[in-house]
Amino acid sequence: MSSELTGKIAIVTGGATGIGRATVEHFVREGARVVIADVNRDEGKALADSLDASAVFRETDVSDIGEVRALVDFAVQTFGGLDVLVNNAGISGPIYASFLDDDLEAFDKIFAINLRAVMVGTQAAAKYMAENGGGAIINTSSIGGIMAGRGVITYRASKAAVIHFTKSAAIDLGVHGIRVNCLAPGSIPTTLLESSTTELEGEERDAMISSVRSTQSKKRPLNREGTVDDAAEAAVYLASDRARYVTGAVLRVDGGTAAGSTMTT
Ligand code: NAD
């Protein structure tokens, strides 16, 4: 039996579906106990129930500062400590046909979930970890935070900010034995992309989805789409003691997409 995370206590935000769900499953398989934090109560609770005593669900809206802070207290009270926080919850916001249609309401929501929650969660967890032997924090950025491109401009900006926040937090928190790293997945089929195209309809929507997917796949040196397990296994590494000397890093899990162009000219 593998045991990369035996004895560790973790929180995974956005753990009910997609990459977060796979992360919860891999963490439990590796011996961790996990608090699943999500707004999706049905899927989050069902996942926790399927994992018996190794996981509990805590309904949490990470855009609510008080709920994020209470989440850390909940993990400590429930499992007796906190070793790992995965700030995974994220939204891409609506994809518009043009940036000219973009709106500020979406901007505020995206930044509240994708960046402010990362800051609040990191600070709340670090306050506990600093007094209790350190820990590991993993913030989910995106290839969109590394590469500029058309569409989801606010999302890209929020994910770029997550990278810089992570590096700076790593420098600040290293003295307390707290490692802070970024996971930057490439395009992985989850509900994220579909849920961000609600402002488009019919052919325009289908074209946008297939355009994002095919542009990305043409650029991938490993020539296949990523999976939620690809990302989750990288999170296991960053959470584990194997990564004990790794902090302030951005681990791309993108099949090589951001390494450079696969075009010959
Ligand atoms: P997903 O939509 O399947 O999962 C996101 C989860 O976050 C959902 O369970 C959702 O309910 C939860 N969530 C959304 N808003 C929340 C809130 N306010 N409070 C708590 N939970 C909330 O999408 P995913 O692809 O698994 O995304 C996970 C992370 O990976 C996100 O941060 C996303 O930006 C990042 N990411 C995804 C991809 C991709 O291609 N799928 C690529 C790069 C980065």
Write the layout of secondary structure elements.
Elements: E1 9-13, H1 18-29, E2 33-38, H2 41-50, E3 55-59, H3 65-79, E4 84-87, H4 104-131, E5 135-140, H5 153-173, E6 178-185, H6 191-195, H7 202-219, H8 228-239, E7 250-253
Parallel strand pairs: 1-2, 1-4, 2-3, 4-5, 5-6, 6-7
Bound molecules: nicotinamide-adenine-dinucleotide.
Explain the overall architecture.
With 265 residues, the protein is an alpha/beta fold. Helix content is 46%, strand content 14%. The protein has helices at residues 18-29, 41-50, 65-79, 104-131, 153-173, 191-195, 202-219, 228-239, and strands spanning 9-13, 33-38, 55-59, 84-87, 135-140, 178-185, 250-253. The radius of gyration is 18 Å and the shape is globular. The termini are far apart. The model has no long low-confidence stretch (mean pLDDT 93). Residues 13-14, 16-20, 38-40, 60-63, 88-91, 113, 140, 142-143, 185, 187-188, 190-192 line the site of nicotinamide-adenine-dinucleotide.
